Amino acid sequence: MRGVEFEDGMVRRLLAAALVTAVWASPAIAHASPALSGFSVSPSTLQAGGHPDLRVSTSFTEPATLQNVSLHLPAGLTANPSAIPLCSRKRLLANLCSPATKVGSITVVGVAYGLDLPVTKKIYNVRTRAGEKLRLGVPIIGSYSQPGIAAELPVTERPADKGLDLAVTGLPSNVGGIPVRIKQVSFWLKGVARKRKHRKTVTRAFLTNPSSCGAATSALEVTLHETPTPLTAAVSFTPSGCAPAATTAVNGSCSRSTAIRATRSSSFGRKIKRRLAGMLKSQTGAPIFGTYDVAKLICRDVTRDNKPEMIVLLQCCTVSTPSPWAIFGRDANGWQPVFDVVDRHHAVYGKGLRVNRAGDVVETLPRYKKSDALCCPSSLYHRTTHWNGSKFVTRRTA
Fold first, then answer.
1. Which end of the chain is more exposed for a tag (fewer CB within 10 A), N or C?
2. Do 115 and 263 have their domain in common?
3. pTM (two decimals)
């Protein structure tokens, strides 16, 4: 894991002074060994899959000289760097980044002569390098006429659980022989970026909460110059608002009731909600979503493994209304969609879905001319979905 990087090779020994700018440490006196007195990771919303502002804070029992800091955010808490424009390195060094590129701020509280001296700096989105998920830039000293000093923090993503790791390494214990002691470090990152476009406010998610409702744990490890033993801490928050887990009902036999339950609890159902949202008007007693119901159910082995699949066609309203359909296979976790068609412009004509003698799924689809009414297409054509031994492939036929 890489740590903070700097534009100027001399900057590392100036970092502490640059971050707290006005911190003047008192003459060396005896200090108790510092320990962590607080560590928190607080999202502004606990909604699973929501987009929280994130606040992280750590504090010490005694002012400490930091050497290395590693922060491991919860599994599934992700960032989307493309949601916020980038600040160029030139503008970062000159402290001239556009407000649109700001992602948050950092506050460092130093101690001098018994006084707490807080300094806050803005954090900007800067261009990533190979292997990084995100890169955060903090201008420390700089102006238009005299480019100065900036720190850049690489943020990496753990492949195993998609969590984010941040690291600061090699911090100096003193500047010009003066010890630099820190009492507290905190930062916040925004969850959503907003901008005005054509008189409307456009929002894009920058941070996203874990989608599951288990404990979301963050871990902190701090190494001080005062002691070689790392200080560690962990905290958790629990996202809420998750959809109920699928029940064993999806393990039933191939039937209409099983098809309804499997559709509701699967990715097939989520696609219908997402892609056909405008057509899901409520109707009393509708079994699935809005006015959609099971129009046709076929229980046949179409993968040639001697295990029947469940083929479900949903329809509603008129002949031109999209008619999503899916092929469900059954495994240890119950019925799961292995192929589906969910398209706003795709409508099976009538109940024209069947399995032919070769075991392929055949759709009957309308072909309209400009003068045709929706009820009465000029002609029909067929589309075949075939299992090739590893996946389903579709081809159009006459």
1. C
2. no
3. 0.58
